[in-house]
Amino acid sequence: MFEARLEENNTLFLSGRLDASQTNKAASALSAIQESGVIDFSELEYISSAGIGVLLAAQRRLQDHGAKLKLTNMSAHIRDIFRYAGLDRVFEIE
Amino acid sequence: MELQATVKKFPRTIGALDDIFEFLEQYCATHNLGSATAGTVCLAVEEIFTNMVKYNEATAPNIEIGVSLYEDRLEVRLVDAGVSEFDITHVPEVDTSQPLKNRRPGGLGLHLVKKIMDRVEYEYTDGTSKITMIKYLGN
Q: Domain span at residue B78?
């Protein structure tokens, strides 16, 4: 089960499992972010390369307009996945 | 010595992922392998399974997933019949040092598999691809 909800301050909360079957839902949620925003990972249990691809597409779209995504509250194992993919250089992660 | 093995076939569709995760998590829970190992195995299997669904022009409707537990390791196999040969162990490495604008889609999933698993093997016999991923326990 994957859910995404946009709250105040352009913060998108992700929860559950962002796998290859959930990319359309994730892309739809991310398309609502039109300026710099925050993605909160505190309730996200799992992400695969398909989910990462959706985040990369959103970051690319925002960077074209001088904006960017900041990723917060990642679990240790999801942070490892981002590090293995070299994405700690692509996203601001805190 | 192999302690416990199980095999199941899943339909060739991304929609099978939930059933695959349930199968793998149940196996890991039954054998007290821990949630970290279960998460690692789910990620590795998703990456290989989705590649097979997207890129293999297969004749078989199902992809077989097998899990075997040994004293020192867990082995996960994905078997896809009626496909062309594609040795994933010889795919060029993704350059993860590149900035976003220079990154090209594709290859990240296999890169992650090689990072999170201890060994990946590929065999091709009579039109059947078999990918075996090994995770040593305690690592």
A: 2-136
User: Over the Cα atoms of chain A, what is R_g?
Assistant: 12
How far apart, in whole angstroms, are the C-alpha atoms of residue B106 and residue A53?
9
Structure token pair of residue B87: 């040795």
- pTM > 0.90: yes
A33 Cβ contact list (under 8 Å, min separation 6) = A6, A10, A12, A58, A62, A69
Interface of A with B (CB under 8 A): 17, 19-21, 45-46, 48-50, 52-53, 56, 59-60, 63, 77, 81, 84-87, 89-90
Decide if B84 contacts B97 (C-beta within 8 A): no
Which domains does chain A carry?
A: 2-93 (3.30.750.24)
Distance CA B54, CA B89 (A): 18
Q: How many CB atoms lie within 10 A of CB B75?
A: 18
pLDDT tens-digit readout, A44-68:
999 999 999 999 999 999 999 899 9
d(Cα B109, Cα A45) in Å, to the nearest integer? Answer: 18
Three-state DSSP state, A64:
coil
Using one digit for the tens of pLDDT, what is the confidence trace for B82-125?
Answer: 999 999 998 888 888 887 877 776 789 999 999 999 999 999 99
As given in the structure block, the two tokens for residue A29 are 């949620």
Please tell me the total count of domains within chain B. Answer: 1
Alpha-helical segments (H) within A4-75: 23-30, 49-63
